[in-house]
Amino acid sequence: MIIIERSIEIPRSPQEVFAFVSDPRNDPLWCPKVQSVEVVGDSVVGGGARYVVVHRPVPLLAPRRMDYRVLDWSPPSRIVWREDDGHDVIRVEYLIEPSDLGTRFTQRDEAELGAPRMLHPFMRIGIGVDVGRQLKHLRKQLEKR
């Protein structure tokens, strides 16, 4: 299992940050690899919700459909997601804490990758870069609001 954790300070309240990141339909605004998000069935934003996400985790390869569901929902401080695109399964945890600037947002990914083990060190680097980039996009999106 690969574990990646990145944090960023955002000049918004924890409630504002939670409201934005808790709705995956906002993901295309701050996650460049996410192409679309659809709600599954009667799901609503919140605990137990399910989504189908189309994303392109590897730039030159075809997009993948991903089952995306809420495992834990604790407003306004924590959300845990499960992402499964048939190749990789990632448990993604968002921790949202008050800070002097407004909010400290931490994303922790625990990834079970389908790629050969010899590629995992390179994938860890790539996923870490992607998460860091996403958090910068998140801060920019929330600063505009």
Key traits:
41% strand; seven-stranded antiparallel beta sheet; 3 helices; Alpha-D-Glucose-1,6-Bisphosphate, Chain A, domain 4; 26% helix; alpha+beta
Helix-strand layout with pairing:
Elements: E1 2-10, H1 14-21, H2 27-30, E2 34-39, E3 50-55, E4 64-74, E5 78-84, E6 89-98, E7 103-112, H3 120-144
Antiparallel strand pairs: 1-7, 2-3, 3-4, 4-5, 5-6, 6-7
Largest sheet: 7 strands, antiparallel
Compute the number of helices: 3
Number of strands: 7
Radius of gyration: 15 Å
Which shape, going by the Cα principal axes? globular
Q: What would you say the CATH architecture is? A: 2-Layer Sandwich
Sequence stretches where pLDDT stays below 50 over 5 or more residues: none
CATH domain fold name = Alpha-D-Glucose-1,6-Bisphosphate, Chain A, domain 4
- Please report which band the strand proportion falls in: under 5%, 5-15%, 15-25%, 25-35%, 35-45% or over 45%: 35-45%
Supply the CATH superfamily name: START domain
Proportion of helical residues: 25-40%
Q: What structural class is derived from the secondary structure elements?
A: alpha+beta
Average pLDDT taken over every residue: 95
Distance between the termini: 36 Å
The structural domain count equals 1
